[in-house]
Structure formats: structure tokens, C-alpha cells
Amino acid sequence: MKYLLQQIKLDWNSIEDNNEMKILEKYANENRLLSLILFFVAAFVISFIIIIELIPVALDAVIPMNKSRPRKVKIDFEFFIDEEQYFYIYLIYEVITILIGLFTILATGTLSFMLFRHCCASFKIASNIIENTVTKHTLQISYRKTHVMYQKIIRAVHIHRKSARFSTFFLNIMNKWYFALVIISVMSLSCNLFRLLNALILSNGFSEITLCIGIVVCHFIVMFVTNFVGQSVIDHYAEIFNAAYNTMWYLAPLSMQKLLLFVMQNSLKAYTLTIGHIYVTSLEGFSTMKYLLKQIKLDWNSFEDESEIRILKKYAIENRLVSIILSFCTAFSMFSLVTIELTPIVLDAVIPMNKSRPRKIKVDFEFFIDQEQYFYIYLIHEIITMLIGVLTVLAIGTLSLGFFRHCCATFKIARYNTMWYIAPLSIQKLLLFVMQNSLKAYTLTIGHIYVTSLEGFSTVT
């Protein structure tokens, strides 16, 4: 970390141009502003939690009752002492724990944000140098000034490469910690979603529901900010290509045009920030589905031949039919499950016995309440859980099927059953090239480990 901060200091000291200094100051002011906003939000969150915890105490003072309202902190931990009697000890411990965790996350997050935004500023400076190197007066420049232009391009490339190495070096240091952080974050989000679901089903009170919603929203905000920062670095990295392309490169000498071409070719390489070696930070995940749906729409609009449109409609109807069948199967499965769960109640009403039949759900989970007495709460929770899981799998599965079947339709449209032997020799060569290219093995690999095909079913036999 000391090396990285020294590198930032060197970058600031090496800048002499006022425009470049303004870029660094702009990004530094943005970092400072974001840090202040986050610390104010953290202070508000701590104050809000303390207010929620002290509501029973305040109500006992303002609207007293015969018996004091129960005092319980929202985070469960055990000191092996009475929580009602020593409520303030629990509260102080809870606040200190939240403060330590929150400010640790804030310090780490704002520092990482500052380092990556410094990289963005350096990329921006390199792009500006490239953009302002070649102007409309380039042809009137003497040989000596041309050498200065060479030096500017070399400096821009050096800044660009140094910033890329800077961000890569930081990630290599932090990835082992980020890996653990990603795992903990996923587990924390899952637990808090489950806690929110329980709070909604059991109606645990407004404060519990509000707290759960706030924690879940914070998780998604952190995820979005992380992806936003990653996307920002990727965009700034690729900006040097646009700067080189949009400049008046055609007015530059031939040797300088070759140098700019090299810059553009090098900047076309994909550059990503991968956290913990498993998670690529970018906003692509938020736009990929939209892009795919737009591509399907463009495919439909680009076909004019009736036979091609009929092929697309045929596959689309098949997708719709499969989706409807799976939806009906899901509805029937849920209805059967509810019927099986309610069988003891129906039998008690139709064929009563001296003792009620045992009521127990098929999926085991624990609310720490009597399952016989609160059977319907367990049943509702089971149905909601099954619905969320089944509908999620159904939605992802039918959507994936729709995409792949659309690919099958377009492959069908482009099939090669043609009378190639009647075509001229040049067209025959072109068709031969197409057929040779299509002979390459094409597979769909799920998770980079499983190849989807029917070959696996016949290998054993």
C-alpha cells in the first residue's frame, strides 16, 4: 500500500501541464466528495439503528404501561447475562461492533475507489495527450516540432501502460482478501434475504422489516458501486482508442500514423478488473440481457423472405408451447404439494379421530415455534420458498431455451442444402470455404466444465 501511495505522489509531481493537473484535481475532488457522503450516510445509519433500539425505552418514558416493553437488540449475541436487565451493555456492544465493521468497510472501499479513480484520471490524461497531439496545423510543423509530437505520444503510451500496471498490481495484492470478501458478501446477502422473508411472513414488526430491507438494499448498492467502478476503469482504458481514432491522424506524417495505429491496436485488447479471481466488475451484466433481446428483434426485422419468417415463427411457437407446458407442470406440482400437506386436515374434517392427525410439512426448516400449533405459517413459508425457487429456475430455463432455439432457427435459415454444382466456379469455391469452416466442432459448455450434448448418454453403451 505504501508503494501505491508513493506512486500516486510521483504521478502528481510529474504533471506539469495545467490541463492535466485539472484532470487529477477533478477526480480527487470526486473521491473526496464521495468519501464525505459515505461517512455521513454511515453516521445516519448508526443514528437510525440506535433510535430503533431505544424506541421501547422512549415509549416507556412517554407512554408508560403496567409492564415495561421488552428490550432486545436486533443483532443476536450472547453474554450469558440477562438481556433485559443489562440492555445498555448489549446496546453499546452492538453499536461498537457495527461501527468497527462499517468504518472498516468504508475505509477499505473508499481507498480502493480512490486508487481506481486515480487510474481513470491517468487514462484520461493519456487520452487527452493523444487527442491534442495531431491538429489541423500538423502539416505546417517543422521536423523539430514533429519530434516533440513523437515524445508526446510516447509519454501518453507510457502513462497508459503504467496506470494499467498500477491497477493490476493493486488487484494482485488484494485479490486473496477480495476472494474471502466476495464469499462472505454472498453468504451475508443470502442470510439477510432469508431473514427478511421470515420477518414478512411472521410479521415481526416494522422495525425488524425496515432493518432487513435496509441491509439488503445496502448489499445491492455495494454491488452496483463495485460494478460501476470496474466499468469506469474499463471505459477510461478504452478511451485512448477513441482519442487516437478521432484525432486528425491522416494529417500526420506516415511514421506517426504507424505509431498511432500501434496505439489503437494495443488499446483494443480487453481489459477487465477481476475481484478475487472470480468476479469481473462491469455493468455488462446489467445490459447483456437487453442486448440479446435487441439482437433477436433485429434478426426478426432483417428477414424479409416468407420462408425464413416461417422458420422463425415455427421455433418461436415451439418455445411458447414448451414454456406453457412447463408452467402448467409447475402449477400442478404446487397444487399437488399443497394437497398432500393439507391431507391430514381434510381427513380430520371428513373422518375425525379421537386425536388429530399429525401435521408436518415435507421440507424441514426451523422457526423455533411449535410446528403443530403454527402449521399454516410453516405451510405458507414452504409454498413461498418453493414458488420462488421453481419460478426462478423456470424463468432462467425458458429464457435460455428461447435464446438457444433462436440460434437454431437462424442456423436453419442459413443451411447449406443448395445446388452448388450448378453455380459458377468462384461461387463453388466460396461455398466450399463456408462448408469447411462449418466443419469445426461447435459445443456449448456450461460453467466451463460441462459440454451439453447427447453424446454422454451413448458413451457408456
UniProtKB/TrEMBL annotation:
Q: Which residues cross the membrane?
A: 36-65, 86-107, 177-197, 209-228, 321-347, 375-404
Q: How does it sit in the membrane?
A: Multi-pass membrane protein
InterPro entries to which the protein is assigned, alphabetical = 7tm6_olfct_rcpt (IPR004117)
Q: Which UniProt keywords apply?
A: Cell membrane, Membrane, Olfaction, Receptor, Sensory transduction, Transducer, Transmembrane, Transmembrane helix
- Give the main localization category: membrane
GO MF assignments:
odorant binding; olfactory receptor activity
Name a single GO biological process.
signal transduction
The family note in this entry says:
Belongs to the insect chemoreceptor superfamily. Heteromeric odorant receptor channel (TC 1.A.69) family.
Tell me what this protein is called: Odorant receptor
* Species per Swiss-Prot/TrEMBL record: Mycetomoellerius zeteki
